[in-house]
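Interim report, section 4.2 (structural modelling).
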Amino acid sequence: MPAALPHIVILGGGFGGLSAARALAGAPARITLVDRHNHHLFQPLLYQVATAGLSAPSIAAPLRQILRHQRNVTVLMDEVTGIDLAQRRVQLTRERLDYDWLLVATGAAHAYFGHDDWAGNAPGLKSLDDALAIRRRVLTAFERAEQEDDPARRQAWLNLVVVGGGATGVELAGTLAEIARHTLTGEFRRAQPRDANILLVEAGPRVLPAFDPVLSAKAQRQLEHLGVQVRLGHAVTAVDDDGVTLGGERIAARTVLWAAGVAASPLGRQLDAPLDRAGRVLVQPDLGLPGHSEVFVLGDLASVQQDGSPVPGVAPAAKQMGEHVGRLIAARLRGDTRVLPFRYRDAGSLATIGRMAAVAQFGRLRFSGLLAWWVWLGAHIWFLIGFRNRLVVLLDWAMAYWTQARHARIITGADRHGRER
Amino acid sequence: MPAALPHIVILGGGFGGLSAARALAGAPARITLVDRHNHHLFQPLLYQVATAGLSAPSIAAPLRQILRHQRNVTVLMDEVTGIDLAQRRVQLTRERLDYDWLLVATGAAHAYFGHDDWAGNAPGLKSLDDALAIRRRVLTAFERAEQEDDPARRQAWLNLVVVGGGATGVELAGTLAEIARHTLTGEFRRAQPRDANILLVEAGPRVLPAFDPVLSAKAQRQLEHLGVQVRLGHAVTAVDDDGVTLGGERIAARTVLWAAGVAASPLGRQLDAPLDRAGRVLVQPDLGLPGHSEVFVLGDLASVQQDGSPVPGVAPAAKQMGEHVGRLIAARLRGDTRVLPFRYRDAGSLATIGRMAAVAQFGRLRFSGLLAWWVWLGAHIWFLIGFRNRLVVLLDWAMAYWTQARHARIITGADRHGRER
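Predicted structure of the assembly:
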């Protein structure tokens, strides 16, 4: 491939970056896709890895395997250490890239609201390593309870707190309740997993705030039916080794999982552009960076308003942004300089609440319960397209459904934070 | 369960310890099974996890799930810190156990022949964590090669050395050659995975020394056909960050895997009994500890002679020893005090050498090639019994066979030794 072809650098191999690369298939350009992981991750099912329902490789595939036939793409596993907009250069750990076009799609993590020291005791769920760390903590908590004689200390191992009532928090809490009530039944001789308390803490007035209030109420009832205690209007004011504090109340819990807030990738701060409160870059209507028509920001790192409300930070939006920018650059390369504003098409929202319960919202249509769960299951298996894992995922789920077992209940690795569990 | 029942403590949930526990189903006793992992591991397929063919949960299952219906067993995830034979006590990290019968089945690891400092640069393959660490190193090596401009340094990333020509070493080397020649084809733009050199180093005169010399020769030819360089009669004299030394020869290699030697579990040294050179306990014909008829040693930790040759340290032998000791104790509990010597029944040996090649030895019958591979495949899927994973494993292999892809090519976790990869 002649070096004279324009060089498009894409930072991030998530839904945004990967769909941009794919939309540029066949374009007369050299594309370099950089990600610090070697894999694309199907993030909507990450909570299933964290709760031992799926194995890590079932929801991830190597980026270079996905893109092997797209000969204009080079994949690099590396981290970005700096962006020089004036020189049009990106510095990686191991090399430097000069670009003609730059796409920044490095996503977002959870926000600890100024308390980053909580991260060690309350891990978030964004990467496979996060999911495996959470799986290790949750499974180890029940093991420790089995060996703890003191009733109060035992209960602290059986108290699991999930902070944040969005889709991830609801999915985690619902699945943890199922594990305690069903999966582990009969496996312990001293502790009783059904004595576990799963607590879902949300600072706002309802769970699933992105959904219709009617569905929020239904989701809460489904969670409570599974045995989850839902605490609304409570903000966490402290997290430490032994538990959490909610205002004046202290809850002893050795396992706290964090699913609250959004903190955009720190790379946004290097783009010399206004940011919103979560650190997202306020982009132009075509997703371009203000003052730099050769730079685009997409996915969870981009802050985009549409019809007076923000485009949500969800996988379909990131995917659509990637397709938009990919097509836009392909058009520019053909000499077509029209400005095409990005339009988000809401394909509907789904959230699952444990086994056979979910809520769904498609335009004006809202439904919940078993039907919503089947739609959720079908949609997620469908969107695992591009992975060869669909059949294995389906099998895992079919087995989990019939046997109530969870096949990935394996404790591996040491705790990142070196804490004695 | 009344506390007056005799207490049988089993240390180790591998093939030996688990089969002993199962053989004691229904026995009038309290059984406590201790393992530092929460899972039983199907070790014969561990190399498949290390080489990204299978996911970790496909070859492991929680011990308490396997034993959930056996009500006389309590499973503890803990580590043994001491054994007091006189007081009949085992000290764990978190509690102390008094026993009436003790079964020690804590297995063996690889031996670095007095060079334990090599472990950081040449990881062995005994646990799931080991396998995931090797997977991370191997996959990362190709990623680093893609970003290395200097030809010599790039080649050092593409040189992979496997030390030890036993079954594990042969399986690793054969699979690595397939990954380089087939799996990764077309996925890299700068480095060429087919430039990888896979080197298998064995100090002895042939690979697979436990097999018939004819099969050793066939295995070597099959390895060479796959592109593996086999070096016989070469002992490794040094391992460091940049490679290995074989006597006078220096080989630059950033990835070295260790599959040589046997070092029995250090618990053997606490048993106040003679040990063999590998640290295995020299037991009585019934697997009892000399001078302690209430203590048994089984699996890879036991050194047993039969008809003038040692019982091999393989999974079927450990399983048979567990069944023997379990039945023996069950008989004693019924008042039957006959001494039953252990007899190993050799069900045959199999080793695989990459895709569709293997060697097999059943009594006087010896064969190799495709037929041996099919027998190997069938036997291993069959012996995954007790795992619900057989179907998933079969699917993974069927997919890998047709597509030459490997579905678990996911890099997770940081390197245990903190080395910059």
